[in-house]
Design goal:
Chain B: Its cofactor is heme b. The complex is a heterodimer of chains A (about 190) and B (about 180). With about 190 residues, chain A is mainly beta. Chain A has two helices and eleven strands; from the N terminus they run αββββββαβββββ. Chain A has an eight-stranded antiparallel barrel.
């Protein structure tokens, strides 16, 4: 009874919305396969490289190669899920001087537009929000779609200090490098 | 060959290695303690960075020193009793061993902590083991124990040199000093 009522409500809300904005091609919805997807990063510390990843994130993906204007990707990253295979470093990363998880538990990546560079190669212009700073980043990525499966891979290098990651003495980049390369490898299924 | 040691005296290369290593070991001991006491911050990281870089330098010099030592003759020990000369050989062997073991334990420790070792920012050493917290704690303990083993060995080494100099009044200490000629 209640579920029927909900469905009617839902339908009555969705149908007019679709009627208003349905383009010639509606971009597809994609579901991220969490086990096969990674958001990794690489930075430098004391002159040596180190790598880590964020184990938890959610993504809403609407994407079609033939409807880039109607495509949109929004990713929420759970900063506390960071793993650099060193517990001391991980607890530093989430502390107030760095990501300050207590105040800003998530980072957000939200696309504004897509551009095709070559077949299977795209560029996403997106707003990246870390802590309370939002900056535009351009993420080039490759995309392979086979049937209902897709894999996207891309890297973008940002400067941590642009986002206030590393407060006070840590804004000095001599021991912890400014450049951080983010690498995404997202597997998704069409839903 | 003027650079090599003879049967009675140490050559300049061996003396150079000896004193350079002595200075580096003393410096490393001081940096090690200082950086450990600092609160987490840029200063601490900078000193850890220097400690690692100098440590790798010591490892490299130790290998060169051992090759050099094996390639040339070593002046005979001046101890009067056979057991004294044996004890000296054993202590010297132990000193060579810690010259390798100390930096290696640090390198291993950094690897286990997943903090790769960069040498003066010029290049990064490969990790010897994968990230492993338990192993890291064991290696950290080993590194700490070794620091005191070195203090003990160097203490013995210095005490023996003074004993030869002031009690036996032989050339043991003098012949390792820079500038002195062939042992007399």
């Amino acid at each position: 009874m209640t579920s029927l009522f909900k469905n009617i409500l839902r339908a009555s809300a969705i149908v007019p919305v679709m009627a208003i904005c349905a383009p010639a091609f509606a971009a597809d919805q994609w579901q991220v396969k969490a086990d096969d997807s990674d958001i990794e990063f690489a930075g430098t510390q004391l002159g040596a490289d180190f790598e880590g990843e964020f184990n938890k994130f959610t993504a809403e993906i609407t994407f079609s190669p033939d409807d880039l204007a109607g495509s949109k990707v929004s990713v929420l990253i759970d900063i506390a899920s960071v793993d650099t295979e060193n517990a001391d470093r991980d607890s530093q990363i989430i502390s107030a001087d760095w990501f300050d998880v207590a105040q800003w538990p998530t980072a957000k990546f939200e696309t504004k537009s897509f551009r095709e560079i070559a077949p299977g190669q795209y560029e996403a212009t997106a707003d990246l929000t870390i802590r309370d700073v939002t900056k535009e980043v351009v993420l080039p990525f490759t995309l392979e779609i086979e049937g209902n499966e897709a894999e996207a891979e891309g890297t973008v290098t940002i400067k941590r200090t642009d986002f206030g990651v590393g407060q006070g003495q840590w804004s000095d980049t001599s021991q912890v490098g400014d450049d951080v390369t983010i690498r995404i490898d997202i597997d998704a299924t069409r839903s | 060959m003027a650079l090599r040691s003879t049967q009675t005296g140490f050559g300049p290369v061996t003396k150079g290695f000896h004193w350079l290593m002595a200075i580096l070991f003393a410096t490393m001991f001081a940096i090690g303690w200082y950086m450990d006491l600092l609160p987490l911050g840029l200063e601490k990281l900078a000193w850890i960075s220097r400690h690692k870089s100098i440590g790798v330098t010591i490892l490299f010099l130790a290998v060169l020193r051992i090759i050099w030592r094996l390639a040339e003759q070593t002046p005979a020990g001046l101890g009067e009793k056979a057991w004294e000369r044996q004890a000296a050989k054993l202590a010297h062997f132990a000193l060579y061993a810690v010259m390798l073991a100390m930096p290696l334990s640090g390198w291993l420790m950094s690897s286990a902590a997943n903090f790769s070792v960069s040498v003066f920012g010029l290049f990064t050493l490969p990790d010897l083991v994968g990230p492993d917290k338990v192993l890291y704690e064991q290696l950290r303990f080993t590194h700490w124990i070794l620091s005191w083993v070195i203090v003990g060995l160097v203490g013995l080494h210095v005490a023996a040199a003074f004993k030869h100099h002031f009690i036996n009044r032989d050339a043991t200490l003098r012949r390792m000093l820079p500038g002195t000629g062939k042992g007399n």
